[in-house]
Amino acid sequence: MTENPTGRLDVRKTYKLFVGGAFPRSESGRTYEVTAADGTFLANAAKASRKDARDAVLAARKGFGAWNAATAYNRCQVLYRIAEVMEGRRDQFVADVLAAEGGSAAAAADQVDAAIDRWVWYAGWADKLAQVLGSANPVAGPYFNFSVPEPTGVVVAVAPQDSSLLGLISVIAPAVVSGNAVIVIASTARPLPAITLTEVLATSDVPGGVINVLTGDPAEMMPWLATHADVNAIDLAGITDADLAVSLERDAAGTVKRVRRPDRDPNWSADPGLSRIRDFVETKTVWHPMGV
Amino acid sequence: MTFEYAPAPESRSVVNIAARYGLFIDGSFVESSSGATFPTINPATEEVLSEVAEAGADDVDRAVRAARRAYEEVWGRMPGRDRAKYLFRIARLIQERSRELAVLESLDNGKPIRESRDVDLPLVAAHFFYHAGWADKLGHAGHGPDPQPLGVAAQVIPWNFPLLMLAWKIAPALACGNTVVLKPAETTPLTALLFAEICQQADLPPGVVNIITGAGETGRLLVEHPGVDKVAFTGSTEVGKTILRSLAGSSKRLTLELGGKAANIVFDDAPIDEAVEGVVNGIYFNQGHVCCAGSRLLVQESIADEIVDALKRRLGTLRLGDPLDKNTDIGAINSSEQLARIAALVSSGEAEGAERWSAPCDIPERGWWFPPTVFTGVTQAHRIAREEIFGPVLSVLTFRTPDEAIEKANNTPYGLSAGIWTEKGSRILWMAERLRAGVIWANTFNRFDPTSPFGGYKESGFGREGGIQGLGAYLTKEVTR
C-alpha cells in the first residue's frame, strides 16, 4: 500500500475466499475491513457466511477422495512444492506478515522462513507416518494382522489469531499430510498472509478442495461446521473465547467429531512433534487370512 | 433320523455367589453409604443371583480419592518392572480361576458357557499378559523416552463382554501407571467383583483398582467427578454423546468405543460354507450383543439366494437354551429391556416391508430369549439396516460390483468393523483400503487379540484399545483429547 516513488498508482488486489481450488467472493456479498498493526487500512476481506462454510465442506469432501487416494510419495512432493513456491514469493509473505503483525522486518522474515521450513518438515512425514504410527501385530492365530493410520476425513481448523502465517501452516500441514482435506478459517484480524498462501496453493499441484481457506468470524461459522454431519474433526487452535470453545465441543458431540481443544500457551516456533498429526488420523486394523 | 443331544451342563458348583456384594474401594469391600442395593438377575432363569451395592455420590467420591491416593503414593511412582509383575500375577490368577469366572459370566450375562470358557476368558488372561510386558517398556511405545501416566482413570463398561471389557480397560491403564475406578454394567456386575477378589489375592496395593457398582447415574457421577483425569467408555453411541457433552471444556482425556452397524460382504467367489459360518459367527455370536457384529449382510447378487438358503439351513441347527449347557449356541438375551428393544426394531422391519424369517426353535418358558432372525428384502432406508439392534437379527442386502459394496458398506454413521469374504487376496486389500471402519476382517469375523488395536471411525467412537496404539490412551498429556 506504500506510495510508489515514481508516482505510479499501485494496483490493489481484491482478497477473496479459496474454495474447491477457485477464488469466490462470499455468497453473502459481505466484506470486513482489515487494518495493519498500526491501524492503517489494508484491504476489505470477504466475510464468509454459513453458506460459504457449507460450500467449503462440499468442496473438501470432494477433495478428500482424490487426496486420500493419492500415494504418500505424491503427497510428499505436493507439500514440498508448496514450500518451493512460497520460497519464490518470500518477500511478499514478509511484507504481508509485517503489515499484519507489525514488529520488526527481521521477525517477520524469521516467521516466513519458519513457515516454509514447516512445509518441508511435514512433507517428509507423508511417506513415513504409516511406518511410525502403524504396526504389524503378532496375533495368536493364522492371520497377517496389520494396523495403518488413515486420515479421518474433513478437518475444520480455526487458525491461530496471532501467528498469521506460521500458526496457520502449523494447523493446515499436519492435517493434510496424512490425507485429510482441510477447511481453515484464517486469523480474523490478520487474514492477508492466508490469502496470499491460497495463491501459492492454487499453483502448487494441490488438488482443488484439499485446502480451503475462509476469512471472517469463526464465532459465526463454527457452530454450523461443528454440527455439520460431513465434517469429521475440528481443531480449535484459534478459538480464544473459552466459552465458545466449550460450546463448539458440545456441538461436535452430536456427530462424535474428533476435537482438538485450544492449545494452552502455544509456541508455534517449537518442534511440533506428532501430536497434531495423531489427532486427525484413525487406526485401521486388517485381519488378512494366511493359508495354502 | 434326528439325533437328540443329551444335556451337558457345566457345574455351577465351581463358583460361590455371595448373597450380597459391597463396593470394592481402597482394597476392601464396603457398603454403599446409602445402604442401597439392586439385584442382579440370571437372564436365563430370571432368578436373583445376588444383591449388589448401589454407589452414590459419596461412594464415587470415596473411590476416586482412594484411586488418587494410590496413584500419588504408590502406583504412579512404582518402577515399571514391579507394575509388570503385579499384572503378570493377575494374569496367572485369572487363568487359575478361569472356569469359575466363565461359569459366573454365563450365569450373570446369559452367554453360552462355550463362549465364556473358550473366547472371553482366554482373551481376558491374554490381555493382562500382553499389557504386563509393556509396563517396563513404555519408552518404546512412541511417546518419547519417558512417557507419563495421566492419573485416575474412570472406566465405564457394558454388559455384553463384562470381564473382557474390564480387561481391555484395566490392563492398559495399570500398565501405563494409572489407577482406576471402574463401573461394570448394572446387569452384569459379578465377574468384576470376583476380579476385585483376584486383586486382593495378587496383593495389588489398595486403591489401584476400585470397582463401584450401579446404574447410569453412578456412571454419570463417576465420569463427571472433578478428580478424574481420564474417561474410557464402552457402550451405546447415545450415551457416548452425552458423555462428550458433559466433558466439553474439561481437561479430561477421553476414549469412546461406541456402537456399530457392520457390513459383512460376501463375494461370489467366496467358499459358501465357510462364508455362511462366518456370517453366523458375525451376527449370532453372543446373541448379537456385539458392538462390532456383522449385522448387515451384503451379498453379491448372483449368489444371494444360495447364501440365504444355506444360512437358514445352518440357523435351523443352532441350539438355543441353557447357557451353562456346553452344546448351547445361542444363550439368553441379557435383560428384559434389551429384549423389548430387539422386538421393537424387528417389528419396525416387518412394518417397513422387509421379509422376516426366524429359526424354528423352542423358546424356554422362563428367561429372556430371541430366536436367530434374518430379514431379506431390506433396503438401505429401513431402520433395521441403519440402527444398531444389538441382538441376533441380520439384515440382508445385495450388491453387484465392488464399488457398490463399498458404497453401501460405508453408508452409515458408524464405522467400527467390516467383513470381506472372497478367495482373492488382492480384492481383500482393495476393499480393506476403502472401507471406513477401524477393524476389517477378511475371511473371518469377530476375532480379537490384545496385540490388535480395536476401535472405530466416525460415530463408533475414537481411540484404540489393544496393541501399541492403545497405550496412547493412557499415556502422556500431549494429546489434547
Structural overview:
The complex is a heterodimer of chains A (292) and B (481). Chain A has helices spanning 50-69, 72-88, 90-101, 105-125, 129-133, 166-176, 192-201, 218-227, 242-253, 275-279, and strands at 31-35, 41-46, 135-137, 143-151, 154-158, 181-185, 211-214, 233-235, 258-260, 281-289. Chain A is α/β, with parallel strands linked by helices and 292 residues long. Chain A has one domain: Aldehyde Dehydrogenase, Chain A, domain 1. The radius of gyration of chain A is 20 Å and the shape is globular. The termini of chain A are far apart. The relative contact order of chain A is 0.17. In chain B, strand 11 (263-266), helix 9 and strand 12 form a beta-alpha-beta unit. Chain B is globular and about 65 Å long. The longest helix of chain B has 22 residues, at 113-134. Chain B has 481 residues and is of the alpha/beta class. In chain B, the strands form four sheets. Chain B has a seven-stranded mixed β-sheet, with helices on both faces. In chain B, strands 8-7-6-9-10-18 form a six-stranded mixed β-sheet, sandwiched between helices. At the A-B interface, strand 4, helix 9, strand 9, helix 10 and strand 10 of A face helix 8, helix 14, strand 17, strand 18 and helix 15 of B. Strand 10 of chain A pairs parallel with strand 17 (439-442) of chain B.
Outline of the structure:
The complex is a heterodimer of chains A (292) and B (481). By secondary structure, chain A is of the alpha/beta class. Chain A has ten helices and ten strands.
